[in-house]
Design a protein that fits this description.
By secondary structure, this protein is an alpha/beta fold. Helix content is about 40%, strand content about 25%. The protein has twelve helices and 14 strands. Helix 9 crosses helix 12. It is globular and about 55 Å long.
Length: about 350
């Protein structure tokens, strides 16, 4: 039985706790907060211990796997401390807000011989598994266009008095916080971005970082693409992934298939459309309209990798890629030029 401790006790930590409770080989044994008092309530709910801080939690013999669910810009220190204690870490997205910090985290766990992983739960959607298979079978032919859209809305109350929307702890806005899941998914499916040109702006909120961004992409495989991310698109619409090629088109809306069309149809295509074809709107307007199933799949894979010694699919170097893309986006906006990766 793996004994898991969560650093952080906000809404995402509760999602992690639900996911852990659903797994037969995992137990939540501890959590901590930054002084809010929420850790005690979470610990009482799940029969765990509330620690006074992350150092006490990480050093506890009752915790052998550490989950990080703090603000994005506070991931570095607990991740490095866990490595020093010889404990594996599964960290919420983004792994950190700069590639320099991420490199420090990766190096610490490489020295310790421990596993560092990142939670990108969109990768664990059932639909994404089918998309990966279609791509591996080259059913789209030559891919010509790939894009993600995250047209969400967050009101001023969402940012008020929060770390969200700050440069120091969020590291960015609609891209680094809300859209990074889709940025990760796009590069995961399409491979490396070769170059990009970006426009970002703060158009609707009093925050330090962007609430609207449009990015033009060229992938290493030759395809063109786009990223659109926003928290300034009232009332919010579903997130979307588009993949288009010379022999087919796939469009995913939230966790569903909106388009699954190929020049060379197969008998199973109709079943895929029937099983996954009801495009939902969950998550478009409500930041907490999210279920724990994909988190549970991610945590289960991470624990399985510890048991078998097989590599975890979203390791530190893999999680770094999306932040590298976003650093290039911010550089393109700041310098008004095409940036090559």
């Amino acid at each position: 039985m793996h004994k898991l401790g969560i650093v952080g006790a906000g809404a995402v930590a509760d999602l992690h706790a639900q996911a852990i409770a659903s797994l037969p080989n995992a137990q939540l044994t501890g959590c901590c907060d930054g002084g809010s008092g929420r850790a005690k309530a979470l610990a009482d709910q799940y029969g765990a211990t509330a620690f006074t801080g992350y150092q006490e939690l990480i050093e506890s013999p009752d915790v052998d796997v550490v989950l990080i669910a703090t603000p994005s810009g506070l991931h570095l220190q607990p991740v490095i401390l866990a490595a020093a204690q010889g404990k594996p870490v599964l960290c919420e997205k983004p792994l950190e807000i700069t590639t320099d910090r991420i490199d420090q985290m990766i190096a610490a766990h490489e020295r310790a011989g421990t596993t560092l992983g990142c939670i990108f739960n969109y990768r664990y959607d059932e639909v994404v598994g089918h998309i990966r298979q279609a791509l591996s079978q080259q059913r789209l032919g030559k891919i010509t266009y790939a894009a993600v859209r995250v047209p969400w809305w967050r009101d001023e109350a969402y940012y008020a008095g929060s770390w969200k929307g700050t440069q120091a702890l969020d590291g960015g806005g609609a891209l680094m916080n809300q859209s990074i899941h889709m940025v990760d998914l796009l590069q995961h499916l399409m491979g490396p971005v070769q170059s990009l040109f970006a426009y970002t702006d703060t158009l609707a909120h009093d925050i330090e970082v962007e609430d609207t961004a449009v990015v033009g992409l060229r992938f290493a495989n030759g395809a063109l693409g786009q990223i659109y991310g926003s928290t300034a698109a009232y009332p919010g619409q579903p997130r979307q992934l588009d993949l288009m090629g010379t022999k087919g088109t796939i469009q995913q809306v939230e966790d569903s298939l909106a388009v699954w069309a190929f020049a060379e149809a197969r008998p199973e295509d109709e079943k895929f459309r029937a099983d996954f074809g009801q495009a939902g709107t969950s998550g478009a307007a409500d930041p907490m309209a999210i279920q724990y199933a994909n988190h549970a799949r991610c945590i289960a894979e991470f624990l399985g990798s510890l048991e078998t010694g097989t590599p975890f699919s979203v390791n530190g170097k893999e999680a770094r890629k999306s932040v590298e893309i976003l650093e290039a986006v911010y550089r393109s906006q700041a310098e008004g030029r095409l940036v090559r990766l």
